[in-house]
Design a protein that fits this description.
413 residues; alpha+beta; Aminopeptidase; Alpha-Beta Plaits; globular
Length: 413
Amino acid sequence: MSKVVDKFLTYVKIDTQSDEESTTFPSTEKQKDLARLLVKELTEMGAADVKMDEKYGYVYATIPSTLKDKEKKVPVIGFIAHMDTSPAVSGKDVKPRIVENYDGRDILLNQEKGIILPVKENPELQDYVGKSLIVTDGTTLLGADDKAGVAEIMTMAETLLKSPEIEHGTIRIAFTPDEEVGSGVDYFDVPGFGADFAYTVDGGALGELEYENFNAAGARLHVHGYSVHPGSAKNKMLNAILLAQEFQNLLPVHENPASTEGYEGFYHLEKFSGVVESAVADYIIRDHSREKFEQKKAYFKDAAALMNLKYGREVLTVEMTDSYYNMKEKIYPENAHLIDTAVKAMEMAEVTPVISPIRGGTDGARLSFMGLPCPNLCTGGMNYHGRFEYVCIESMEKCVEIILNIISLYAGC
């Protein structure tokens, strides 16, 4: 079994699921279980400056430079992955299984429960015929998002630390909590990290390279109804549930996740609760274009104002907060070398680069606006946040090779 697979299988068995309802940071203490293991492994393999932030759960470490020419100036490169798994599906008691020499047919995940990973709904499986896949037992997610990234960075670290003859500059690595709930870098120590730039290793299929992501905001709509007995409600009752429905109908019908792709933005109603008297609706607003993003936010507020005008009272109030912005603003043109180098590193590994926009966000998006330019590299994982998640072993091994190639290119070796 290769190093990266061995590490990955160890990490996914540790439950690190984050909690979007939590008011603490990290949102779950169990994320620190993996953090402590990583600290132990990094220390044992000889990394320097190994540290866990006991309060917040971050892990930091250094792979010291091995350059023979001490006067040579090379950048300090960072590599970052997150330790938590999505709240969407349980990450407890993960039972990974290796499917060797995949034959291109449906994969039986759980015979007892009759759970199958079907090719019909996952046609990309055909790209992995003859390769080895790690799958779940169909009752939990796998955790390749982002423990594949963690395993790949750890494998890179061990490779370099055990091979001092490989020349490279100073490498900084970090592992973060709570990325899946949008707060992964709230307390990240950018100055202490000390990298000139970094890569998050948190993408999907082999070859993915991402430096564009959504601009994102969260909006909470408070709906103020008026409840009276339905038998005498004419011209008096204002049903908050129906008011929320009316507001939703004011939003562009095709600007929702189910009708958009690529660079197209959307409004997404992700949570609703209410009774006649009052209701609350939580939305996320997304667009790659900053201009269209601002227009979407304004339209949302204008729709609420229109309804208030219609009813002659404040039936709707809006709370809106920006979450993150498109990191392309911080990558191009000033830091275009990050993409050029990653493309060359992939080509050296005989991997075809696939540059595409992220229809979401990463820790790297926020870090880029905190002064650490940080595009996103692939991990080899697929079907994130669900029980049909899987990862290709050969892809993980190639991802390690790509990271090592990036380091070599920046060292000029």
